[in-house]
Amino acid sequence: YLAVPYEDVKVASYEERTSAQRYAEDFQANLQHPSFVKSMVRSHVYSCFWLGLPHNFCKNHLPAADLTMVLENEKGSEYESLYIGRKRGLSGGWRRFALDHKLDDGDALVFELTESDRFKVVPRFYVVYSHNYDYMIYIFGSFGMLYLISLVYTNFTEMTTHWKEICPFYT
Questions:
Q1: Integer Cα distance of 99 and 120 in angstroms
Q2: Name one GO molecular function term (predicted).
């Protein structure tokens, strides 16, 4: 069972997945609230729509009981999702969020816990071109806005120090 047409299903390569994850982790390092990075896989975004959350994050920051979590994107749009405490994951409502934001396999999302029942879900990060390791072109989007970065691979560290300039929408 797929919620999107089969031809729209993307399969991220190892390089694409790890690059997106690395950029998301660098972005996460500048956040003030508890947060985690989650790399999307097929069951998160195309079928099943179960999003397991990191065990230690749930243990330290979320209750063991079920609750309705609010997922807020950068535009302020809110989506309700059921957090199942005993299973440490998001279920009902996550499907709508994933489909509305056209999430794909390999996208990396940053979840920032801004209140006890609210995640700010910040830009997804994904690689568009990575076949030539002399340079890579990255796109990271905030669901409604896309930013294109072309960089020399060795300038990765330099680029990650300028997140506030690169991500003006995030405050």
A1: 17
A2: DNA binding
Provide the b/e sequence for 103-142 (b: ≥16 CB within 10 Å).
bbbbbbbbbbbbeeeebbbbbbbbbeebeeeeebebbbbb
Q: How far apart are CA 40 and CA 24, in angstroms?
A: 12
Q: What letter does residue 8 receive in the DSSP assignment?
A: G
Mean pLDDT of the residues in the chain: 76
Q: What is the pTM of this model?
A: 0.72
**pLDDT of amino acid 33:** 95
Count of domains for the chain? 1
Total Cβ atoms within 10 A of residue 8: 11
CATH assignment at residue 44: 2.40.330.10
Q: Quick one: CA dihedral 72, 108, 170, 29, positive or negative?
A: positive
| Domain span at 37 | 6-127
